[in-house]
Amino acid sequence: MLLQQFVFNSFGVNGFVLGGDSGEAILIDPSAGREAERKALSDYIETKGLKVQRLLNTHLHLDHILGNAFVARTYGVQPEAHEEDAFLLDLQEEQSGMFGLPLDEPSPALGNYLAEGDVVEVPGIRLQVIHVAGHSPGGIAFYCKNPGEVNGQKDVPPLLFPGDILFAGSRGRSDLFGGDEDALVKGIKEKLLVLPEDTLVFPGHGPMTTIGNERRWY
Ligand SMILES: [Zn+2]
Ligand SMILES: [Zn+2]
């Protein structure tokens, strides 16, 4: 598997490109809000000969979806996220004002809903969907239990892409659009911290961490 991280827009969202065995690619929060970021993303995809198959959003706060329109238009894919976050697509203008993020092209509607237990798969990549409400009602994490070889490195431990549910040393805020602190803490404890301690965590903002590192805060 290929794994490439980008840092997008003024909110510093971590977006990811995952490339499978025959070049099929999954994008997670490719929130390229600026022209230069869109070019960096598309240049990488072209250079590696990747075929974008899926456009996944961990949740639908505006900072995570600024690239959706570009990716949908360029690669012919539609965004996928949890149904309980779909209302946030109707609030893109409000989010733009609240976050102070310009919205030049709104995200298109979701093409598919992702729910707890779903699997997103292309050859060589298998992601399980884990739903943790609380930062947003439909927040989801993507868990890759057996990544195998990643960027040429063998036997890589499991990978987790939790969006803004979990950060290194902290977690997402719960005071926005349907947030719920109790649900967030409960979900983190019951669904994420139970994963293997060597799981590599790639949050939606900031540096990576591991499940073992984060357990000590709870
Ligand atoms: Zn968020
Ligand atoms: Zn965010």
Structure description:
The chain has 218 residues and is α/β, with parallel strands linked by helices. The protein has one domain: 4-Layer Sandwich (Metallo-beta-lactamase, Chain A). 23% of the residues lie in helices and 26% in strands. The protein has helices at residues 35-47, 62-65, 68-75, 92-99, 181-192, 211-215, and strands at 2-8, 13-19, 24-28, 51-56, 79-81, 112-113, 119-122, 125-131, 140-144, 159-161, 166-167, 170-171, 200-201, 209-210. The strands form three sheets. Strands 1-2-3-4-5-6 form a six-stranded mixed β-sheet, covered by helices on one side. A hairpin with an 8-residue loop joins strand 8 (125-131) and strand 9 (140-144). The longest helix is centred in the first third of the chain and has 13 residues, at 35-47. It is globular and about 40 Å long. The N and C termini lie far apart (32 Å). Residues 11, 13, 61, 63-64, 164, 204-205 line the site of one zinc ion.
List keywords for this structure.
single chain, 218 residues, alpha/beta, six-stranded mixed sheet, 14 strands, globular, binds zinc ion
Give the structure's gist in a few sentences.
The chain is α/β, with parallel strands linked by helices. The chain has six helices and 14 strands. It is globular and about 40 Å long.
